[in-house]
Amino acid sequence: MYSEIVNFPKLGIDFKIERIAFTVGGMPIYWYGVIIGLGLVLGVLLSYYNAKKVGVNRDRLIDVLIGAIIGGVIGARIYYVVFSWDEYKYDLKQIFAIRNGGLAIYGALILGVAALVLMCRIRKVKLLPALDACAPGILLGQAIGRWGNFVNAEAYGTNTNSIFGMTSLSIKKYLESLVKQGVEGIDPSVPVHPTFFYESIWCFIGVLLLMFVVMKHRKFDGQVFLSYIIWYSFERAFVEGLRTDSLYLGSFRISQVLSVILFVFGILLLYVICKKRKAMGENVAPLYVNTEEGQAAVSGKLYEKKSQMEPETKLTEESVEDSAAELQNVEESAHNASGEDDQCSEDDSTVVPENESETESEQNEATGSADDHDNQNND
After folding, report:
1. pLDDT digits 0-9 by tens, 208-236
2. Is the CB of residue 118 less than 8 Å from the CB of residue 270?
3. Cβ–Cβ contacts within 10 Å for residue 252, how many?
4. How many CB atoms are closer than 10 A to CB 164?
């Protein structure tokens, strides 16, 4: 089904949804992919904008984000496929058909953050400031990306009589399949919670809070990212409980369990950090952006200095060989000089006797002359 009408009865609003945005060479490009892509681009731009505020070089942050996005997409798909294996085990080619949907946010976060950590090490970027720069962008991407679920008519909840209740032909068919499976409390004729909408609005509000409250008044590196974890996991823990298409691990909604764990962990970590900072008083470390190194990183001078220092301090095999050859030449020169000195000593020892002989001859001649002179006097 490539188009359908989504109805919000109590709002009196109908939307005609076209799943295909356009075609390229006969290949359909779905709105789901276009919307996800738009969320990624805007998220990257917001992260790029935040880079200077936290002491991160913008060019290097882009490199970090490229790696994080690749890791995030792979992680999102792996997470979804693992916990929906029954849908793919008989047709493995469908694992790669992400245009049809099936990306899990927590999978994107887990592998995306892991890739970001790795790229920060490779590109010599401070991790916590980089996470702070990216947190609002991640939340913006999620807020926009949830509308991809809307055009796919997915990620909705159980029946509701609220003003936001929605329904469509595909939603009714899905609910009917749940009834056939024996799921209780489901009525295909009643509208359902638009859980994608709840999460999107929550994320948009979160972007504003992170940008204009937490980012503006942050006290330590990593505070914006930690606030993001707390804000998002709190909402997801509740909204996930409304959904009818949750991913399960046994009888547990895996994303709901993760949300509770992350929320509790985030609150405890924030408490510990604040308590430790209070105890440290004036000895609290400044934000990285306020340090000389942070400013040098933003301008790129930090990396210029490192690149200039490396050739001077780094010993290569060629330089070691040249030094060894030079040392050998010095030793040979010293050895030759020592040989010449020995030769000179030998020559001197040969000359000395000749000088002594000449001296003795001169003395004899002098003695002879004196004797002749005496004889002459005697005569």
Report:
1. 999 999 999 999 999 999 999 999 999 99
2. no
3. 12
4. 15
| DSSP class of 191 | -
Q: Are strands 13-18 and 252-253 parallel, antiparallel or unpaired?
A: unpaired
Report residue 13: phi and psi, to 5°: -120, 135
Q: What is the pLDDT of residues 296-315, one digit of tens each?
A: 999 999 988 666 665 544 44
Query: Which residue type, as a one-letter code, is found at position 160?
Result: T
> What are the CA-CA distances from residue 342 to residues 271, 337, 353, 356 (Å)?
82, 9, 18, 22
User: How far apart, in whole angstroms, are the C-alpha atoms of residue 80 and residue 245?
Assistant: 11
Express each pLDDT in 133-169 by its tens digit.
999 999 999 999 999 999 988 889 999 999 999 999 9
> What is the C-alpha to C-alpha distance for residues 243 and 186, in angstroms, rounded to an integer?
12
Burial 215-247 (b: 16+ CB within 10 A, else e): beebebbbbbbbbbbbbbbbbbbebbebbbebb
Query: CA geometry: angle at 135 spanning 134 and 138, to 5°?
Result: 85
Q: How many CB atoms lie within 10 A of CB 143?
A: 21
**CA torsion sign, 28 to 32 to 36 to 39?**
positive
Q: CA 40 to CA 140: how far, in whole Å?
A: 8
**pTM score, two decimals?**
0.80
Q: With left for phi above 0 and alpha for psi between -120 and 50, is residue 5 left, alpha or beta?
A: beta
Residue pair 288/129 in contact (Cβ under 8 Å)? The answer is yes
Coil vs helix vs strand at 216: helix
Report DSSP state, residue 316: P
Domain boundaries, the chain: 3-290, 291-321
Q: How is residue 346 written in tokens?
A: 């030998």
* Six-digit token string for 189: 């004729």
Query: Within 13 Å of residue 33, how many CA atoms lie on the same side as its CB?
Result: 11
Cα separation, 228 vs 236, whole angstroms: 12
* 8 A C-beta contact, residue 101 and residue 32: yes
